Amino acid sequence: MAKLSFYRWLPHLIVPALVLLVGAVATLLTAIQLRDANHARDASRLRLEANQAVAALEERLGGHTALLRGAAGLFAASDDVTATEFSAYVERLGLDTRYPGVLGIGYSAWLPDAAARDALVADMRRAGRPDFRVWPAGDRAAYTSILYLTPEPRNAPAIGYDMYSEPTRREAMQRAAATGDLAMSGPVTLVQEPGRNRQPGVLMFLPVTRSDARGPRLRGFVYSPLRSGDLLRTVFPVRPDRLVDVAVYDGPARPENLLFETAEPAARPQVLRAVPVAGRTWTLAIRTRPAFDAGSNGSLVYWTAGLGAAITLALTFAVLMQARAALLAERARVELREVNAGLEDRVARRTGELANAVAELRDEMARREAAEGQVRQMQKMEAIGQLTGGIAHDFNNMLAIVIGSLDMARRRLTGSEDPRVARYLDNAAEGASRAATLTGRLLAFARRQRLNPEPLDVNDLVGGMTELLRRSLGERVEIETTLSDDLWPVRADAAELENALLNLAVNARDAMPDGGRLTVSTANVHDPVADDPAAPLPGEFVAIRIADTGAGMAPEVIERAFEPFFTTKEVGKGSGLGLSQVYGFVNQSGGAVTIHSAEGAGATVTIYLPRWAGELAPKAAAPADSPLPRARRGEAVLVVEDEPEVRRLSVESLRDLGYDVTEASDADQALQRLAEAPAADLLFTDIVMPGMNGVQLAERARAAKPALKVLYTTGYARDVSGADAVQTALLPKPFTIAQLAHRVRQALDEGRAA
In angstroms, rounded to a whole number, what is the distance separating the alpha carbons of residues 685 and 666? Predict the structure, then answer.
């Protein structure tokens, strides 16, 4: 009976055990979630405190920067600022009351040699300062001398001091002179620092220049000595109720770099922030204080755990008592019911598991089919790209002959010929130029054209194209732009991106013959795959969407849309290269392009370009047109080209420009020519040749003649991929005589400058 009683009890113990287990797990998970949420909240609070500390420091230093720039403006406005004028200006700033920690604002003259030093001493003594001297004494390559430093009484010991004689100050002054902007020194002991309560000091320098016939010349430095403790105590006041302590370091957070701290370091959570300060990096270490912990909800975790444990035990006891009562009341019937209930529960659970497994298998098969389709499409596009790239390469060599010959013929016209001859040559040149544009589109699809990537603001680029799009699309198409705020920059070829957007806009216009609306929008995308399942790239991207309200595209058309020469337009109304050029450019730029459409519902093309982590750079002004450069006396060029007609045209063009030209059909012959005629100044070589290629030839030739300059040429941009030296000295085929003349002259002149 004892064994029977045990087995009768056993099924009834399952439910209490499950209640105990589930309650314990639920209590544990809830406590963990509360703990993690509290940690996240505390981390967010600490980050907020860190952000506020950084902002306070930047605001304080920004105000001091404005003081120095104002003082520099005083010197820029007058060639002769007297001590009285300078003192009056600085005293009006109210440094003692408004800018604690700033010992003063001064001016130090730049003395390039000993003669300038002696002249300054003589001038100052004649001006009524008989004790003036430049100190410390000694002979140095250059000198500086503090002339003015206001307020004067406490800064009088620093007058005449040569800050350039001390390495830390000298480094900051050299950096300021080189950059033309503010420069902060490392920690120093200030000359006017009292003997007691010494603090680390730093100095900020701003160069003052004077322009004459030889250009801007260094005149001196406006500077300010700062006591780091007094300065930073105004930024981070030591209040009893403060939530965090702050320590400021010049450079990495190491004890020897400490400038200021509100309290001794303690083993508490902290966050480090690097702040650029006038060419140096200060590190802020922000540590929590007990007042910060008082605002945390850490005790809630323990209360939750205790309450959950009590509820779990109470429920377990109640279920256990209920099971005991049921066993005593109807032992046999309860046993049978529990067995049946257990069987039904297991069957239901297994059925659910099987259904979930079938659903997961179905989803996995769908994902694999989609991935295989993407791989097949990518392989297909790559194969077509290789074919079109090879065709464009050969066609570029032929175009080099055609364009060069036409250019030579036009340059040899005397003006007495039939005017139709010049017109025929111009028509032929225009046709060759259009053919070169066509090969450029083929190379764009093949991802082999030479790009000039630069950091771009896509919003600015789209905004600048709006008027062009309106003129291109006509009045029947309404253009709407939706540009995201705080859009990330990208790094891409601006001209190619504009061309891609214009191609997409023109395609959208052709899909709306009766008019419609074209929408251009931009957005930051943290995960393109989540944003667009058709995008194969993870990471952070900028999305550019071009949506129209046209006729839309069928699935079979979308599948072939990026193939070169594929078009649904009538004969003569499209080359079929627009979308293929977009595809090639975007992929070469490290991005992706997708199409979403349905017949009758318009189409949306999305370009994904990788986020650029750097900063936008200002655009350089376009260079002015220059006359066709010619050879200087005695300059010689060795031309190496395996295509006879291209070689002949290059040789004739260079000779017309006045160069002494030697030609070779391959690398071995070129090395022989160099040995026979070592006077060559420039090697102009094709990259792709039988046997030794152009890059290998240049290495061999420079080993024999280190002063030899090199200029490469090719009709195939992939020939130079990964070669930085080739990228910077390259003339792509086809080229005109003017392009050849400018590139050869540039290669020779750059060599001389180096």
Answer: 9
